[in-house]
Structure formats: structure tokens, C-alpha cells
Design goal:
Helix content: 25-40%
Pathway: Protein modification; peptidyl-diphthamide biosynthesis
Family: Belongs to the DPH1/DPH2 family. DPH2 subfamily.
Number of strands: 22
Distance between the termini: 55 Å
InterPro entries: DHP2 (IPR010014), DPH1/DPH2 (IPR016435), DPH1/DPH2_1 (IPR042263), DPH1/DPH2_3 (IPR042265)
Number of helices: 15
Protein name: 2-(3-amino-3-carboxypropyl)histidine synthase subunit 2
Structural class: alpha/beta
Shape: globular
Radius of gyration: 28 Å
Pfam family, one: Diphthamide_syn
Strand content: 15-25%
CATH superfamily of one domain: Diphthamide synthesis DPH1/DPH2 domain 2
Largest sheet: 5 strands, mixed
Length: 499
């Protein structure tokens, strides 16, 4: 491996030098941390060389290595960088390219090995056979190999020039390796529009291309073309980035070229099952009474707005909402809050999907929460994992002749009565329903307990639980069998005799 080329030593040094950064944080994922010392040494030498060749007299930038990020390693760790008062972050490895809030970042994707000729041959043969135009998408670590694949495709086309009539191919491009802080998220600039985004052009006679952005890639389709018309050819691993594309473009035909095995994977049905699982979780979330909002990022721009919006959404649906800040969630952590019926995970698109089969309660995304808790919302099949898509996208409440209310005896919202004759009939029906439900509450002790529980504040409720954690405050409060066993520290139990 060409070390300096893989870690883009010259480009990173030029970026630091051009912006006069004095304190730089280097963020490594776990698998690249072993090379951090070599990277720091090479960067220092290159920065020193650049300063010697310039007329400026200033100190070399201080470099700080960051590891063990609080959340997903694909996001820029702004919290860790703030601890050393860094001016910027150099992010190494796989990146979701989510916009930051306070600090700029330069992303080094790396250069994963890729057999360009073999990939081009698989792409050409399958593309010609499908008869559809092809859109090539790829993991960012394979961006370096796209020029070689394009050149190899020309060779393939020359070999089979008689069979390539009408064969069209489009390549996505990396939007930018530099992340600029964004204090406010603008819908049209920061996320993919599922129906495409058209450039405004005063000349109506000129064709308008439809532009898309997702997962750090950007591409455009000619006027009148839809994503469903294309064969999506993914180059890379079966990872979170690939899952993001599968769910977002679930109506498209998708194949994957495995760069490690060097072969084409045409069966992506296993990944497609994820969408069915997500739909099941949405339906299950509709029955929740208490909802936990998990903070999954402290750096992606707009995350605070998303948390506030989710809180308002849950409260408006007549449910309790609690916000949890606990780092990377796992079954053991969330098991401390068994009262929560469902959790909403606010994070970047590539860490948003948590396999909640091992958790006590399902974990959904903000997009799924919008469908679950907005009465009248239905899943059309469109899907988005970018929580920025949800910001400012909640529909206004629509007044319908069908009135929705929460029914305790049916265990959810019901829409089985219509109000057609004005306010008087509406008030009469609502009064009757209110009286009926109050009577049922008085007769049902379980419902009465539920009502008392919901009346408590979050702190009072959690403090009143019979289970308080692993700390044992008094041995008198437990039955005798609980105390069977050794006591003291493992380094020296009380009943052990010193030798």
C-alpha cells in the first residue's frame, strides 16, 4: 500500500496550510488507528516543509489524534474536537458526509483495492442484458477507481460494438470531500428529494436535468427520466451505505459488485426484507404510550431541531416523551428503561437503522415516527433515512369530517364516528365519549394505575420503580437467599484467608 497516497498526506497538509489552522484533530476509526502515529509523523514533515518553502513565519499546526468516538465513526466527532479546541477535523475512513454544526472537516476516504477491468466487464455485460440505462453508485472508498472503470468500459464497448446500441451509463460523483459547518438546514440544499430536484432555468427551451444527492454522492438524470427507469449498479460492500440506497430506491432494480470477492451479486432480496421489517416496527410503534428519544449524534447539523420536533410530535399524539443521552445504545443500556414502549433514534442516515430484535422495545427512525404518530399518515412506499428530510416536512393538521380520538377500551385511536351536522352534534358526541371512558377508568383498576402513572413527572416515575439498578443500598430489604455467596471485592473477598 502506498501509505502517503492512501492517506492523502499532501492534500491534507495543503488544506491545513491554506486555511492557517493551528489546532487540528485527526479522527480515526478503530480499524485505522494502528496507522495514526505514521500519519501524524508524515503530516508533520509535510507541514514543516510547506512552512519552510513559504515566506510566512508561524508555528506548525498542532495535531491531536481522536479515537473511540462517542457515536458512529462515520460522523465528524465535534465533541471530541472541542475538547482540544481544534480548528478543524481531518476525518479518515468511511464517512456519511453529514454536515457539521460548528467545525469544518476534510474527509479522507482511503483507496480500497478494486479490479477495474473485472468490474467493468461485469457492469457492461449485465447492463446490456438488462436493456435499461445504468446508474453507477459506489462506496466512497472506491471513488478513486472510477476513472479506471470508465476507461475499461470503453475497451469493452469496442470489443462488443455491435451489441451496445442504446446502452446508456451514468456515473455518480462525490459531492465534496470538505464539510462546511451549517447552522441551519435548508431542505433544498442538504438532502435528497425523492422525486428529484430540478434546476431553475429561465430558458424554457433548454432541457432541465433532475439532480439527486444521497450518502455523499450526487448525480443528475436527463429531463423526463425517473430513477425507476434505471438499473442501479452498486460498487462496494454490503454495508450501511448500501442499505441506505436500497431503502431509498426500493422500487429500482439493484445489483451489487463485491469488490473483495470480485463478482456480481444480483440477489439483494435479503436486504430488501429490511423494508418489511421497518414497516412492521412502524405499526408496532403506533400502540406505544411512552416514547424514548435517543440522541445518536451531537455533531450532525440540525439534530437539536429534530429532537424538538420529535418531542412535539409525540406530545401532540397524546403520548409521553423522554429524551435519553447515553452514547451508543445497546440492549443492556435500554433495558434500564423498560417503561418505554418504543425509542426514536436521532442519528445520521448510515447509523439510523439498529437491529432491535435483541432490544426490549423497537427502535425507529424519525421518518418512521412521523408516519406512526401523525394520525392519518400512510406509508406510500417512499422511504428516507436522512432525518433532515423530516425537518419542516410535517403536514399541517387536516380537519376531516372523521374525528380521531384515543380510545382506552380499544387501545388506540379510532375514527369510527363522523361529525356531519355542525358543532352541536360534535360537542354532544365528544361529551358522550368522554363520560363513557371516565366510567370505564373508574371500573378498571389497571387503567386507574395507568392514569396515575401518566400523571407523574419523568423523574418521579423512574424514582418510584421497584427496580433501581445494580446498587444494593441495604441488605435488610432483600430476602435471605439473595445474600448467599461471597461479599467484598474480587481482589480479596471477606471470607478469604490471606496466605
Amino acid at each position: 500500500m502506498d501509505f502517503e497516497n492512501y492517506y492523502e498526506i499532501s492534500l491534507v497538509a495543503d488544506f491545513i496550510n491554506a486555511h492557517n489552522f493551528s489546532r487540528v484533530a485527526l479522527q480515526f476509526p478503530d480499524e485505522l488507528l494502528k496507522d495514526s502515529r505514521k500519519v501524524v509523523s508524515a503530516l508533520r514533515q509535510e507541514l514543516h516543509r510547506l512552512l519552510q518553502n513559504s515566506d510566512e513565519s508561524r508555528a506548525t499546526a498542532k495535531l491531536y489524534v481522536m479515537a473511540d468516538t462517542t457515536y458512529g465513526s462515520c460522523c465528524v466527532d465535534e465533541v471530541g474536537a472541542a475538547h482540544v479546541k481544534a480548528d478543524c477535523v481531518i476525518h479518515y475512513g468511511h464517512s456519511c458526509l453529514s454536515p457539521t454544526t460548528t467545525i469544518p472537516a476534510f474527509c479522507v476516504f482511503g483507496k480500497a483495492p478494486l479490479k477495474a477491468s473485472n468490474c467493468a466487464e461485469s457492469l457492461y455485460n449485465y447492463g446490456v442484458k438488462s436493456g435499461k440505462p445504468v446508474l453507477v453508485l459506489f462506496g466512497l472508498e472506491y471513488a478513486h477507481g472510477m476513472p479506471d472503470i470508465k476507461e475499461a468500459l470503453n475497451v469493452e464497448a469496442m470489443r462488443f460494438h455491435d451489441s451496445n446500441s442504446g446502452f446508456q451509463i451514468h456515473f455518480a460523483n462525490v459531492t465534496n470531500s470538505v464539510i462546511t459547518p451549517s447552522a441551519s438546514m435548508k431542505l433544498e440544499n442538504q438532502h435528497l428529494m425523492l422525486n428529484g430536484e430540478q434546476d431553475n432555468n429561465e430558458d424554457s427551451s433548454q432541457k432541465i436535468d433532475t439532480k439527486f444527492r444521497l450518502g455523499g454522492l450526487g448525480w443528475s438524470l436527463p429531463e423526463g427520466h425517473r430513477m425507476e427507469d434505471y438499473l442501479l449498479f452498486w460498487i462496494g460492500l454490503d454495508n450501511s451505505a448500501f442499505t441506505n440506497f436500497i431503502l431509498t430506491f426500493n422500487s429500482c432494480e439493484i445489483v451489487r459488485y463485491d469488490a473483495i470477492e470480485g463478482c456480481l451479486k444480483t440477489d439483494v432480496s435479503q436486504q430488501a426484507k429490511i423494508l418489511k421489517r421497518r414497516y412492521y416496527l412502524v405499526e408496532k410503534a403506533k400502540d406505544a404510550n411512552m416514547v424514548g428519544i435517543l440522541v445518536g449524534t451531537l455533531g450532525v447539523a440540525g439534530y437539536l431541531d429534530m429532537i424538538h420536533q420529535m418531542t412535539e410530535l409525540v406530545t401532540r399524539a397524546g403520548k409521553k416523551a423522554y429524551t435519553f443521552l447515553m452514547g451508543k445504545p445497546n440492549p443492556a443500556k435500554l433495558a434500564n428503561f423498560p417503561e418505554c414502549d418504543v425509542f426514536i433514534y436521532v442519528s445520521c442516515a448510515q447509523t439510523a437503522l439498529l437491529d432491535s430484535k435483541e432490544f426490549l422495545a423497537p427502535i425507529i427512525t424519525p421518518f418512521e415516527a412521523l408516519i406512526a404518530f401523525n394520525r392519518g399518515s400512510q406509508w406510500t412506499g417512499a422511504y428516507s433515512m436522512e432525518f433532515q428530510d423530516v425537518i419542516a416536512s410535517q403536514p399541517a393538521e387536516v380537519e376531516d369530517e372523521t374525528e380521531s380520538r384515543f380510545s382506552f377500551f380499544q387501545g388506540g385511536y379510532v375514527e369510527d364516528f363522523k361529525l356531519q351536522e355542525g358543532k352541536e352534534e360534535k360537542d354532544a358526541v365528544l361529551s358522550l365519549v368522554n363520560v363513557t371512558e371516565k366510567a370505564l377508568l373508574l371500573q378498571n383498576k389497571d387503567s386507574e394505575l395507568l392514569s396515575r402513572r401518566d400523571a407523574k413527572s419523568g423523574a418521579e416515575f423512574f424514582a418510584a420503580r421497584s427496580y433501581q439498578g445494580l446498587e444494593i443500598h441495604s441488605s435488610d430489604s432483600f430476602p435471605e437467599p439473595f445474600l448467599i455467596g461471597r461479599t467484598g471485592k474480587a481482589s480479596g473477598y471477606e471470607d478469604e484467608q490471606s496466605k
